[in-house]
Amino acid sequence: MPVGDVERAVAAAAAEDGIRLTPMPRVDWLNTHGHFALPAAAASALPALQRAFDALGGDEVEQRSKRLGTLPSDLVHLESKTVVEVDELQHFTSFRLLTLNQLPTETSDEYRALCATWSPKADRYRASKTAKGFPGTQGRARQRAYNDLLRDLVAPLLGYQVIRIPAPLLPGPEAYAAAASRLAHLRDASATSATSTTH
Question: Residue 198 contacts by C-beta under 8 Å, 6 or more apart in sequence?
Fold first, then answer.
């Protein structure tokens, strides 16, 4: 499936349900240097990110030597500053499971179970793809797990809520339907915004 198709389908399904999700604009605090280039407001996330970076076999010299640029994200609900990440199969690796150790158990139990189910298949997804900053085999998978944790930990410190929609091998409408309850509160914010712009 072409890149972005599932998240676009999720956004379309949300729009039909009265929730306006748009592509997330790039932000300076989510960048290629990761926790080595965070704003002061996110300093409390540094220890957990460093632990995960080390556990994933990250190389600080390589990470710092990358060209500094912003990383893409999926969707955002602007009225409530809610980042909505649509996680396809490749996000449910054994490496992602490792990073979940840096999150509160109550917020990661669902993803622990999903990683346990899907990691045998997800770990094989483009396993030979390399990534600067994470040398060796499965570099891209380790980088993705790190960047997911980066969003999870840093976004709330900068005023964003993060909602993840699991979509391993699911089409967008089905993924949205399964996660609709966790997005329902955004409908009120969208309605309030729409009402205020008409007055």
Answer: none
Domain that holds residue 124: 5-197
pLDDT tens-digit readout, 119-144? 999 999 988 999 999 999 999 999 99
What total of structural domains would you count in the chain?
Answer: 1
Question: How many other C-beta atoms are found inside a 10 Å radius of the C-beta of residue 28?
Answer: 11
Minimal CA–CA distance to 88: which of 149, 29, 144?
144
Confidence of residue 192 (pLDDT cuts 50, 70, 90): low
For residue 195, is pLDDT > 90? no
